[in-house]
Design brief:
There is one protein chain. By secondary structure, the chain is of the alpha+beta class. Strands 1-2-3-4-5-6 form a 6-stranded antiparallel β-sheet, with helices on one face. α1 packs across α2 and α1 packs antiparallel against α4. The protein is globular, with a radius of gyration of 15 Å. The relative contact order is 0.18. A hairpin with a 6-residue loop joins β4 and β5.
Length: 149
């Protein structure tokens, strides 16, 4: 008799508003960005929490979530409520958001993340220019909503 693994509930995409902004990334992806996502139930602190969530167009579940926080920067593949956090390692002087956006600016890395999220067919259809444009939009949104440091 085979034992069944419990199905993990993948997190769904946020709605536009409440700090979330839609990012145009071409016809195959649905990307949302929040310059400083406040976590429910947490006391306010000095940690900056930008978040980038990625889904395949037409699917409500997140394929990727990048959390380039000022402390504890990480990302998730197929994020669930109790999913594993994968550290985003920043070099000395490098901003966590720049590390996260490098996935968009180096399209093979981004396609690799999508493949790990079991979205290989979409990864092959992506246009490098759309990914680079998404990174530019995120940088602009971030600059507009966050004070300069």
């Amino acid at each position: 008799m085979m034992s069944e693994q419990p199905q993990r509930m993948q997190q769904t995409m946020p709605e536009e508003g409440s700090g979330w902004h839609r990012v145009n990334a071409g016809p195959h992806l649905h990307i949302m960005f929040n310059p400083n996502r406040q976590l429910l139930g947490r006391q306010p602190d000095e940690i900056e929490r930008p978040s980038i969530v990625v889904a395949v167009a037409g699917k409500p579940q997140q394929a990727l979530r990048l959390d380039p926080f000022s402390v504890g920067s990480h990302y998730h593949i197929r994020p669930s409520q109790r999913g594993r956090q994968i550290p985003l390692w920043a070099e000395e002087g490098q901003k966590p958001l720049d590390v996260a956006l490098a996935f968009f600016e180096k399209p093979l890395r981004f396609r690799g993340l999508l493949a790990q999220a079991e979205e290989d067919n979409i990864a092959l259809q992506l246009d490098d220019a759309d990914l680079a444009a998404a990174a530019r939009q995120i940088r602009q949104l971030y600059a507009r909503h966050m004070p300069a440091t």
